[in-house]
Amino acid sequence: xxxxxxxxxxxxxxxxxxxxxxxxxxxxxxxxxxxxxxxxxxxxxxxxxxxxxxxxxxxxxxxxxxxxxxxxxxxxxxxxxxxxxxxxxxxxxxxxxxxxxxxxxxxxxxxxxxxxxxxxxxxxxxxxxxxxxxxxxxxxxxxxxxxxxxxxxxxxxxxxxxxxxxxxxxxxxxxxxxxxxxxxxxxxxxxxxxxxxxxxxxxxxxxxxxxxxxxxxxxxxxxxxxxxxxxxxxxxxxxxxxxxxxxxxxxxxxxxxxxxxxxxxxxxxxxxxxxxxxxxxxxxxxxxxxxxxxxxxxxxxxxxxxxxxxxxxxxxxxxxxxxxxxx
Length: 327
Hints:
Elements: E1 3-11, E2 16-24, E3 32-41, E4 59-61, E5 65-73, E6 85-89, E7 97-101, E8 106-107, H1 114-118, H2 121-134, E9 142-146, H3 151-163, E10 166-171, H4 174-182, E11 187-190, H5 197-203, E12 209-214, H6 221-226, E13 228-236, H7 250-255, E14 259-262, H8 270-274, H9 277-283, H10 285-289, E15 297-302, H11 306-314, E16 321-325
Parallel strand pairs: 9-10, 9-12, 10-11, 12-13, 13-14, 15-16
Antiparallel strand pairs: 1-2, 1-4, 3-5, 3-7, 3-16, 5-6, 6-8
Helix pairs in contact: 2-3
C-alpha cells in the first residue's frame, strides 16, 4: 500500500504533541477528490487547546486549508478533473495527499502561487461570512479590526478595501501598521490595550464604526461596543487573549440597535459549511483573479518544519498568513 507523510497532533490539558507520521494514501469517496498537496497554511484555532476543537488525549490530522493538484476523483465529482489546480478547506492539509469534498473545491486564479492559494479557503471564507453575509458591510462604511496584523485581520482589511469601505486597525507594532497602510489601512492605532475608543470616534466624526471584527477577545470587547455606530455590527472571531468573558453595555446594545454575532465553523455541519462556498466564489473570488486582492504570506516553512511554523505563529511576529510548502 502506498504511503505518505502527514502531521498529526495529540492534545493534552496544557500542551500538544506534534508528530510527522507515515500513513496510507487515502482513496477518494464518490463525492471527493484526492489532491496532491503543494501548500497549506496555518490557522491559530486548530492549535488552541481547551476551546473544544479536540478532546485531550486524542490525535487528529493537522491542517484545514490548502492548495494542490487533483490526482483522482470520485464518480460524483463534476466540473473538476485530474491535473486541475485547486484550493479548499481540507482536513489533514499538512500531508502529501488529502481528500477534498467536492462542495469545497475551488479553482485557483492563475496568477497565484501555491502558498498564496493555500491562504485563501478558510481565512477568506470566514471573512466573507463576517463582512458580506452577517456584517453587511457597504462601500463608504467604517470597519474596525482589532489585531489587524493577524491572518484574519489582514484578510478583513483587504476584502473591506475591495468593497470600498474605510478601515481602522489596531496593532501593538508600528512596523506592522506601516505595512498595513501600504495595503490600504486608513487609520492605524498602535495599542494592545482597550484604549482606542476616543481615536476611533474622532476618525468617524463621533458616528462610530459600522462593523467591528474582534480577533482579540474579551479584553477589548467593551471598548469595541463603545466604538460602534447606530445599527452597528460586531463580529467575534477569536480570543487570542484567552479572556472569554466581558462587560456588556446593555443600554448601548438597546439604544443603538446593535447586532452581535459569532463567526465559527466548530458546530456547523459539513453541509452548512459548504453552503457558503458558491456565494464566496461569486462575491470575492473575482477580486483575486483581477489582482485587487493578493494574499499576504509572511513566511513559508517546509513540510518537515510544521512545529517551527507553529512557534513562529505563537510568537506573534508575523503579518498575514504562515504557509507550509509541500514538495
